[in-house]
Structure formats: C-alpha cells, structure tokens
Amino acid sequence: MTTSTSLVYLIALPLLGATILLLAGRRSDKWGHLLATALSASSFGVGLYQLSQMLNRPTEERGVSQKLFSWISVGSFNVDAGLLLDQLSICFVLLITGVGTLIHIYSISYMSHDENRRRFFAYLNLFIAAMLLLVLGDSYLNLYVGWEGVGLASYLLIGFWNQKPAYATASKKAFVMNRVGDMGLSFAIMIAFATLGTVSFSGVEEASHTASKAALTAIGIMLLVAATGKSAQFPLQAWLGDAMAGPTPVSALIHAATMVTAGVYLIVRSNFIFDAAPTAQLLVVIVGAITLMFGALVGTAKDDIKKALAASTMSQIGYMVLGAGLGPAGYAFAIMHLLTHGFFKAGMFLGAGSVMHGMNDQVDMRRYGALRKFMPITFITFGLGYLAIIGVPPFAGFYSKDAIIETAFNAGGVKGILLGGTALLGAAITAFYMTRVMVLTFTSKERWEDNQHPHESPILMWLPMAILAIGSVTTGFLFTRGHALVNWLSPVVGEHAESEEMLLQPMVVSGLALLAVAIGVAIAVMKYQRADVETVAPQNVSIFTRIARKDLMQDSFNEAVFMRPGQALTSLLVKGDENVVDGAVRGIGRTALGAGASLRKTQTGFARSYAALILIGAIALIAGIWVVTQ
Amino acid sequence: MNPYNYLYVSALLFTIGAVGVVVRRNAIVVFMCVELMLNAANLTLVTFSRINGTLDGQVVAFFTMVVAACEVVVGLAIIVTIYRSRRSASVDDASLLKR
Amino acid sequence: MTFTAPVLNYAQLAPMLIVLGGALIGVLIEAFGPRASRHASQLFITVASLVAAFAALVRVRNQSSVDAAMGSVGFDGAGVLLQGTILIIALLSVFLIADQENFTALAAAVPGSSEERESLQLDLRVTEVYPLTLFAVAGMLLFPVSTDLITLFVALEMLSLPLYLMAGLSRRRRLMSQESALKYFLLGAFSSAFLLFGVAYLYGYSNSVTFAGIQASITGGSGNDVFLLLGIAFISVGLLFKVGAVPFHAWSPDVYQGAPTAITGFMAAATKVAAFGAILRIFYVAFANAEWQWKPALVLIAIVTMVFGSVVAITQRDVKRMLAYSSIAHAGFLLAGVIALSKSGLDASIFYLFAYGIATVGAFGVVTLVRDSAGEVTDLNRWSGLGKRSPLVASVFAFFLLAFAGIPLTSGFIGKFSIFSAAYETGSTAILIAGVLSSAIAAFFYIRVIVLMFFKDPVEDGTSVVIPSALTTTTIAVTSLITLILGIFPAPLINFIESSAFFIR
Fold it and tell me: Which residues of C359-374 are buried (b: 16+ CB within 10 A; e: fewer)?
C-alpha cells in the first residue's frame, strides 16, 4: 500500500488549534474562533489534496497509510499508531472537515454573545481531531482511541452550558449510555485479539477468512453494541434526545453529520466480519429496522424542534444501519445515505438554530408559525433540506433512501417484504412528521408571543446553511451518476452484488415510496395547515400520542428490561446509590453491586477474623497444591 | 531418636500458635502466639539442619531470633500505644475500620 | 577450620547501602539535631540519599552477577529495573510525606490528652518518619534482589517493620490510625511466621537456602515432595499477604484507610513493586520447574483476587478503601504475569508495576488535597461535584482512575494489554477471560466516581481542595505526566524493559 507522510496533518491541524486555544486562555479571546475556523478549513484543504492524489492513482492503489510510531509491541504482537486513508475514509474526512468548517463559521456568529466562545471553539477543534482519528485509524485499537476521544469532546460540547442543571444531566446520560457501547467495542477488540491474534483492519480481514464462525459472530455482536451506543440505536437510543440541550451547532455537527454516524462507519468498516457472521448481520438489520420506526414515531409527537430533528436523526441512522446490515448490496447505500444525510440534517439543525436565534431561544414549535415571511433564507434552506429528507426527487434523500428501501425489498423472501415494508412505512411517517415541523414552524398561522420579533440571521449564519442546502439538492444526483459512489467504495466494502431476482423493479419501489411520502405529507398538511394549532400541547389525546411523547416509553422500557430483574436478583442493595448512575447501566451494575455488598460483609473489622481467613487460606492452599500433586 | 519426631512437635507448636492467634483476644497473647510460631519454625530449621547435616538451618535460626527481637520492639510499641489510647489491649475492641 | 572473609561487590550493593546510610544519619539527626532545623535536614538527607542511590544504580545498570553478596543477593536486569522503580516511587512519595499536615505531632501522646494538645501548640513534627521511610525503602530494594531464603526473610521484615509504625502516625482520626497499625502488625507478623515456616521446609527439602540450590533440587527431584509442597505453600502465603491477594487481603482496606494518606500511597505503590519483584524472582528462578504443582492454585487465586477486588470496590463509600480494593484487583492482574512464567510475562509485569506504582502515588497525592476543617475528606459522597469546584484536580484524579481502569491513552491500558497477552500466550485462557470481565466491572466503578465528580452537584459542607505545596504539586504533575506518556508512547520503556529484564540464575 502506498505510504504518505501528510495524513497526520489532517488530525494535527485541528488538534493544534485546540491546544493553542486552551493553553492561551483568555488572551486568545479576540482571534481564537478565527484560528479554529482557519485550521479546520485547512484540514479540509488537506483532505481535498488527498482526494486529488487518490484520483490520480489506479483503483487498487488508492488507499494510503502512514505509520506514526510503534505504539504497543508485546512479544509477537504489534500495534502501530498508524493512519489509513482509503476510499471509505476519504468520504468521512471530507464530510467531517467540510461540514465541520461550515459549522465553525456558523458558530462564530451564533456563539458571539457567549463569553466562553473561545473555549467552545477549542472543543470543536478537539472534536474534529478526534473524529478524524476515528475514521483514519488503521486498527480497531486506533479507532477506539478516536471513539473515546469524540466521546470526551462531545461531553464537553453538550455540557458546554453546564451551569444549567438540565444540561449537566443530559451530558451525564449521554456519558453513561455511551459507556455501555464503549464496553461493547472493547470486548470486540479483546475477542478479536484473543481469537484472531490481531486488531488491525487488514489483519482481521485476512484472519476472518479462516476464523471460527462463533468468534466472528461474537465480535460482530459486540461491534453492534458499540454502534448502538454511539449512533443512538435501539436499545441505547435514549440519550440523543436529551443531548439536544447543548448548543445547536453542536447538534448539527455531532448529532447529525459526524459522531452519531460513527456506528455506521464501524459496521461498514467491519464488513468482512459481518459478511462472515450472518447472525450478527441479521441483528444489525433488526436493530436498524426497529430504530427507524422508533425514531419516526417519536418524531411525530415532539413539539421541541430540536428534539423532533433528533428523533428524525435516530430514524435516518436506522435506515443507514438497515442498509449496512444488508451486506455487500447495502454498504455503499448506507454510506451514501450517511453523506446526503450529513448535508441535509446538518443544514436543518442550523436552520433550527437560526429560528431559535430569531425567536429568543424558543424551541416549542407550537409557539412558532408563519416564520416564512420573516426568515426567507432560513425558510428556503430548511425547505430544501426538508424536501431532501422526505425523499422528493431530485433531491439527495430521494436517491439514497430509495436505494436502501429497494435493497431491503430485494433482501429475499419474507425478510425482504418485512424490511421493505418497514422502510416504506418509515418513509411515510418521516414525510408526516417533517411536514409537521415545516408547517408548524414556517407556514401556519402566527402563534408567538407579542414580545418576540423574529428576524433573519446574519450572513455568517445563513451562508453555511445555504451551502449545505446546495449539497442536499445535488449530492444524491452526483453520487448516483454512473453508480459513482458504489464503484468508488467497492474496493473497500466488496463488489456490489445486485440480487438476481428482483422482488420489485426500481421504478415500482420509487413509485411506492413517492406514494407513501405523498400520503404522509397530505395528512400533515390537513392536520396542521388547515386546522388551528393550540399553543399548548393538548392533554386529552390518545394513548398512542402520549406514549410517543414519552419517547415510546424508552425510560420505562429500560427500567423493565434492565433494572427490575437486577433488583430482583440483588436484594442486598446499597442505599443511596440510585442517584449515581441511571439508565441501563444501573441494572447491569446492580448485580455486581449486590455481589459486592455481600462480599463486603466479610470485612468485619476484627483482626482475628482476618487471621482466621489467612489460616483458612493457607490450609486451602496446601490442600489445593496437595490435590494437584497427588 | 528419630529426628522426624521433632518435625511433628514443631508442626504441632506452629498449629497451636496459629490457632492461638485466631482465638485469643488479648493483643499481647496474640503476639506471643506469633512468637510461638516463629520458634516452631526455628525448631524445624534446626531439625532439618541435623537431618541434612548442614549448618545453614541453624544460621537461619539465628537470623530469625534477631528479627523476632526487632519485631518485639515494634510490636510492643504499637500495642502499648493502643493500650494507652483505649485502656484495653483486646484486639476485638479495635474494630473501627471495617466494611 | 579456615574462615574465608566475605567478598562483597560494593558497587552493586551501593544503592541499598546508600539508603541505609541515609537512614542511619537520619536516626542521628533525630537524636542530636536541633529541633528547629530537623525537618529540613531530614528531608534533605532523605531526598539526597534516594537520588544518590538512583545514581549509583544507574552507574551499574548493565552489570549482572550472582555474587553481589556471597550468593545472597543477585544483581541482574530485572533487579535493576525493580530497584529503579522503587526508588522513583519512593522519591515521589517522600514529596507527599513532606507535607507534614498529615502526621501527628507526637506519636506517643494519647489521643485527646493534654499532652497531645500541647504538642500541637508547640508545632512539633514527626521527623522520624523520614528515617523510617528510608529503612523501609532499603528493605524494599533488598527484597526483589535477594537470592536466598535468609535474605528474603530479613528483607521482608526490614520493609515491614517501619511500615507498621508509619501506619500509626496519622494526625487526625488517630484511633483509626493506631488500629490500622495494630492490625497491620499482628497480621503481618502472623503471615511472616508462615513465610519462615515455608523457608524451613524448603531448606529441609533441598538442603540449601539459595534459590539456585532449590531449583537444582527440584530439577534433580531427589527430595521429599511433601516438604516442597509445604514450603511452596507457606512461602506463598507470606508473599501473597504482602501483595494483598485474596484470601490474604483482609488487612489492606483497613490499613489503607487508617494510615496517613501519603504513607498509604507509598505503601500501596512501593510495597507492591518490591513484593511482586520477590514473587517473580522466587517463582521464575526457584520454583519454575515445579510449575505443575503450584500453577493451578495460583491461577485460582489470581482469578478470585481480580474478581473479588473489582466487585467489592464498587460498593465502597470511602475513596481510600476503594483504592485499596482496586489495588487488590491489580494484584490479581499482576499475578497473571507471574503465572505466565515467560519472558513476555516478566516484561509485562515490570511495566505494569512501574505504571501502576506511579499512578497510585499520584492518585493518593490527589486524595491528600481534598480536605475540610477536620482534615482529609475521604467520603466519596462528599466528593460529588468536585469537578465543578476544582476542575483541574478532579480531572487529574479522573485521569488516574482511567489509568487504573485501563482506558487507552493511559499507561494502565498498555500494562493490562501486555500482561493479559502474556498470560494468553502461555495458554492461561481462564485468566484472560476473568481479567477482561473484572476489568469491565472495575471500569464501572472508576467511571462511577468520575460521574460523581463531574455530573453531580457539589454539596455545601466545607469540603474544598487545598492549594498543594510545591512538592505535592511536583509529585502529582510528574506522575500524571508519566502516566500519559506511557499511554501514548510506551515503546521506549517497553523496549528498554525487553532488552534488560532477565533473572540471573
């Protein structure tokens, strides 16, 4: 493989920015944000340069690697801190640095009133660096470092306004839920090391041809756990909605374009494992299908514009995971949807930020309405993103989402019909709740309070939105010309396999999808454009609405599945621990806690009982050695 | 006389000492039981020295005596301090640290 | 009968002799030095002798011989590495000990008596802690290089006796501190009696007190196997007690909690290095060929130790007890390196000991900083929200916890990784599985503390972080820096250990 010496600059530039800004402290208040933006942009420049280099090389030599230093060498086992830039990672590099830079620009204006703006930019740069490390690492171990790094940076960013208690709670929830996922990744790495003896991507790929199916399935399932944690997939999805408490640009960067898609990256990167472990692959599909429905249903009931978008992100990533679970037929489409989603969802989050900016940080959509007249640019850019996400041709989402629905239908047999049906239904619901957002915010009657004076945002804010909107219009078309993206990725994810017998022709699928979208849009328009919308969410609603408002009972679900059995198992609980952690981790921890509490009783405080323990231990040791010897 | 009998005696002494540490409450007595264990070990060493016909075991015994003397100094210092603070030399009374 | 004069290799013994000399000078200062300047001169002597000992060690680092002291002390690469580790840890701990706020003014005074009040008013200081430290360090230096059973026993006592006293020197909660000293002493003496009994049986088995002689006997297979069995078992009890392996662990939480925090840090880090050094040497050199006898039992102890330490640590409410249980768990991880019985196991153990020791001193250094008007606050509930009060200190502590948990980019990760892979290479799959599982449990409770510090609201009860003295700052800064560097760029140290760690036979 070609080696390069310039890959490290991709990461080093934003990392340098974070270091300078954090070290210089208040002195860099005046120019810190400009420096951070410039460094992020130059990292994007390096990415473009790498792309041009890559295009000049023949297909099989496109991947480049760089060894930084020898990280761990223990006996025969070596891990280098190395970087790998291939057709898959370049997509991510450009998305991260490109969208990242736009969000830097947006934040200059959005955060201008915050006295800690410099620190915010330092964290942004840190995040970019960590995310780049995640996608550039050439082994699972290096990926893990980036994985933890984005985790850290995202807590710093979500909790940026941590003087407000709700926000601090939000970052705690994200922290705890992500730990569960991280545990999955570390288990996967350890199993890979124990059974395959290597953790580098190339090494594992090679070893996966001969490894036992059980080991590969175990690795695959653990990788899936990791992906569900980071990408807010079922059943570890609860944190994403709460994480919306952070500043809006953060949501656009982390919770739309980059970090939450890391799970999809992980699955696609590990395609060789999932292809060899059908059980794990099936689980991926199931998780994706459940989440896409779950997110869509939650999205229909949310009045908070950011939470509605967050639910939609969950659902869209569900589509990607579903695509990635369909094997070689779907990997490229998952990545395509990921890229187009990166554009339109980031654009919509920025749009939501712009609306909040003009509405005194009001987030309740029931208090919006008719903003089209006051914020024309925001309306247009948001609207283009909206058309893209619901999948209206020729906008980007149409191409990428249709491809996944079509692949799902063609997965074969009942499975195909179920998956395709779910994806299709999800598309209809997506159309419904996105139209609801659109209508409630921009087109229906004014419902805001008198003291609000909606106004268009400054150019530094709408320019990035406009650029992202252009992306959400054009990318789908560009990626599918001559199967550009599919062919580009095939050396990494395997040759794209069209299933021999098509259940449904592409035209039919597109037709069905458009029909679903039309139905969804029509219902939403009927319900929200025509009728009057109450400014306070009505309480006497159907049980389904109430369930959806409560995030489909996900907290109750966590309690029922994880906590109750743990409680029943361990009656010897230590009081007062309830407040320390919450969510799923609590249940898992309980068993250990209970065991610990009873073992702890052996520590009586009496020196004589310790001596007795030693004596018994000595006798047992002699007996043990005796038994072995005889 | 069969020197192995000394081994049995010393093993018995060691056991008495070990059990004494576990069952006795007074710190001084506990400490004496530990000394008994050390001396049982010394007896074993000397017996082996006799059986094996080398002097190394007896040399070890001498070292043990010196070390035991040092241990007495440190041990009594600690026990006396505890006694002065608590007005009791029971090892069971000193049980603030637990769980 | 002719008497041959002993031949000593003074250059190779120099590190130990320098430390002992420093300790003796310290005793003289204690006896004759003017009270006003005692603290400064003791600190100077202590630091100077530790630095000089390190320099002496560096000078002879490439030498090796079985005859440093008539076959009683072996001088080799592994010994140099372990002694260097102990000296570095001791130096960093002395900086913490120098913060005399932790120590009683007059150890002999009865708690709550007028004598004690008077001594506090006079601002007396327990400067005897310095010579005690040096004596303990000398014992620790000798422990891992001793190659016969007499030296092993004497070194064990030499390092233990000063520690028993030092555990009782706390300024506050003196009853607890004295209790910890009593428990440590009684149980320590109890376990060293076991060790001595084992020495006797090994001598009976092999007719030799040197490791080489025992090894020769085991290889020859001529002795009585019952004696060998008893010898290995009893010696193991004594050694496993020192490292705090289950079921010989019970003293450590109580002693860790009761002892002054600076002493706990020193004890936790340096004793573990010395004791594991001795365990590694005796098992690798003397018992290696009787592997099939002791290995199953030791595997079981290792597994039970790591699981027990990790599980019980979760329920702890006191930060020092929590660290004690974590150190029990780490003893289990380290036993994996002993069981591996291979070159890579030895390398990994030495790296792990260095990384763990450094992080431990740092973590206890941070614990000394969190105080209220009545001294250190070790109740974990009162640590909540520490990240908001004092982000830097809380972050440093969180970093050490992550290192204990073995999260990438810390030294703990590299250590765990290498020790488990060494155990795995030699076929101890059970150890690998237990290790990974208990690491996961361990990660849970470390992260719980991090959550507590950063995501909970502070309690308003006067808990605060004091501004550390220059020496304490140095210790915490150096330890966290080393922990970070070893996490990112461990290759130089690993290579150095690989090239020089071996046991001379």
Answer: bbbbbbbbbbbbbeee
